[in-house]
Write a structure and sequence with these properties.
globular; Alpha-Beta Plaits; alpha+beta; five-stranded antiparallel sheet
Amino acid sequence: MFHVDADAFFAACHLAVDPALRGLPLVVGGDPATRHGIVLTATYEARRYGVRTAMPLGQALRLCPDLKVIPPQGRLYQDFSRRLRRLFDDFSPVVEPASIDEAWLHMGGGVLRPFGDDPVVAGRVLQSRAQDEIGLSVSIGIAHNKMLAKQASDLEKPHGLTTLWPDEVARKLWPKPVQVLYGVGPKLGARFLGEGLQTIGDLAATPAAELRRRYGAIGVVLLARALGTDDTPVNIRRAGEEKSLSVERTLAHDVTTTHEAEPHLRALAHELSGRLRAQEQAGRTVTLKYKTREFVLHTRQRTLSRASRGEEVLYETARELFSSRREPEPVRLLGLGVSGLAREQADLFDDPRERVIADTVDQIRARFGTAAIGPARLPLHGESTPSTFRRNPEPPEDEPHPL
């Protein structure tokens, strides 16, 4: 099993199209003029100054006054993501995308024969082709199951090629801080530390019954990951065959009221609509997913009268679903998804001018950044992603719950 993850993906896409940016401390995200927003991703040169993903842009500029800030460009990232996916398909017929810049590749069934049945050789070839043909550096984790492969790809960055076989787990994984285990977010990590679980090995040595008593089902899930025994299968999703599409973000600050949630829902609808347009798809069932401060996951759904990919339709539906929730607890994660996907048809829009408007908006955002234009009803305040969003959500702190 391979887990392939593009290094500093958003920034790397800009470096690939403009080599003059190489070597500069650079971040993608926010608005450099107003110093508002957050860092979506940072080059490794910027990270040497302490700049990190999800950091407020103003703080990043204080750490590195010479920091180069580039606004996000969704179309550019989608293009590079498609090119990566085509490369992955050259190596394996079974690919599960994990996000726009990473995927699992099942490497069994004779896939490794052209490489002398050596996964390390195959990994090096994949890395070389990603660099030479796409201009991206990727880190690869190799293991016998997908969760260990994901863990392995995170151990050495950038451009790492790391194996994590069963006899290597105790040596390579267990000494690591418990916070780096896939699925351990900041709050749960702090709780582990406070209760004496300092390393992944400490977690692995704790009886399952004790973990279940103290942390519930997530404790047992994380124990399996620490032991390397989580055999979650690869979910085959070929391009154009997805039954659903979703996006989610962990919020830096909890929200309680619909008013507080509105900018986050707007940004999710914007991103989801753009992905649907890029794939020429539309769907009828809209699902809102939200997780409370206590890590309890809830979902609410609504089926539309007709398939849609419109940003405004998705936003209004998400807003109504959030308003109808019965749980008053603060929310720490929001997700928005569409299922029942079908190829886009010409009659999806009541007014053909909507198609022209949507395409024009995409072109403007692709050229000038996603903050260049947005709905007048709710200004985007200088960025497409609210400043409380993290570029990548923390791994789920409970069992996966697909939208």
